[in-house]
Amino acid sequence: MYRLCGEEFVHRRLGDVELHFLAADVFEVGDELQLDLLWHATSADDCVMVGTNFHNQGDKYQYYSFAHTLSVAHLVHWLCKVELMGAQGANRSFDGGGGSRSGATWADASTASFSGFLSVTTCRVPRHVSEALLATGARSDGSIPSSLEVSLQTSGADGGRSSTSWRPEPLRLCPRPAPERRKRRLLSACAGTLHNAERVHSIAPHAVEDWINYHLIVGIEHFTIFDIDGTYEPYLRSFVERGLVTYHPRFPAKVSPKLGLLAAGLREPKEHRSMLMEPHALDVCVWENRQVSDWVVVVHSFEEYLHSPAMVAASGMFSMRTLLPLWGREVARTAVFEVFQEPMGGLKDPGARTMLSAWTHKRGLEIEGLQQKERIEAAHAHFQPFAWIIDPLNVLQTAVHFAQARAQEQAIVVMPRETLRVNHYVDLGSNTSRCRDELGGCEVPDNSITWAEEMVLSMRGPLVTSGTAAAPPTRALAAAGAAAAAATWPGYTKLSYGASGCAAGREIASEGECRRAIASLGLDPQPSWSGSDGSVPPLCSMREQDAGDGQHMHWNVLGEGEVGSGRDDLAPVCRAAAT
Length: 579
Known about the structure:
This protein is of the alpha+beta class. Mean pLDDT is 83; it is low at 92-103 and 468-488.
């Protein structure tokens, strides 16, 4: 399987637009290969385009705000070119006619957005490249599959029909070992926690641990968990060490610093748009599970628990390991299971040992006895899908509570609440009863989920304290960092082309300083590239000519243990020695 090279995401600056490539995948369709890219476009300024929904009525802080990709992203017509990288990193290009790199042609790509939050661009991998990759993958001699280079340009970049002219520096996709079919996970979970972990821990000290352990009991094998401020690290550490959790701290800031500030870095916590990047995190999780897990379920946060009342009534317990394969065979071509919530709340049991027994009353709203207008309103507000279980390869995109199947003939199955639902403990952390004040009350007794409480308690470890938990960013800290980055160094110097990097203590500290340093040398930093690539000098480098795909400035931030390397067409830019 193929993923973006580097640690996480790849960023491309194109004038006043930034493209953030969050995931990539190559997969078989019939007898050929297809390549998908998941990306988000933002403006290269301090503005963020967001959308809201009906939940925000009367809320001046607009808590339910999601970051939308720029509208122009839906209108561009991409062309793409997929090239095979040779053993020494040299490109071996194939197009539909088998051309060389110099003679390769561009092919039409297709771009779609189900949600408006992200875009998916799909390229057909040329047959010669497909055959080479499939042949390498079929060998048992230990051969390492080649990397891929994906070039994109809008049709306007060559005088075509698009009015937008974009041509980002090529993306590189690296091969990753894929599990054998029999060793794939059956079910993995995605979660984007939206609340500071310290607050959650003060309310319910074992909330995160119990939530993970319960879902391990019912058959989830792995979790991918995102947060907005890095505070969940100590509470997830033991699960990460055991390989049960993949953790993405400060996800919004990794996509773009301004998104990180808006999600978790403002002076007034009420102004935070905590949900800003939840849809994007969930889609990244789904793509990480492509070719790794047969099914993926969203359990948005620690106050939500999957539950099957019917299975518990029949056998005293339930397991997704047993049920999910059966459900998958009942309806041909199932790509999505839609799951509804059951709000749990009302009077809390003061002697409860876990969340499972803290609130044992559900809303239990039935619409049959309502008048037509009330029935329609109730159906709109309370009877929409809340969660999904999806086949990650056969779903194009998700949108928090919904998912879009890839092909028209694929099935979306609606799960009855008694068969599978999400117990949503809506009163956790609330000073008043949300279930009573917003949802009409939780008065129907239902303690069926408590079958698992003793097992959950037996799995608890020592109480975790915050310890080294990272403090969330604040506006003051962000401002201090920006001021430091804006400070002008006495001078800068450009090393020779091919040099591997700056001497210790002479490295440039930020992308902004890199841009200013290049300009101070009388050179043009635009167009620029930023990302993570081991074949590029670390941090700041540049070229003066429009070589390759035209980028001048390069800002290369590498992961721990990576050093980068010199390249003949790039010259490192460093701070000059003090005089």
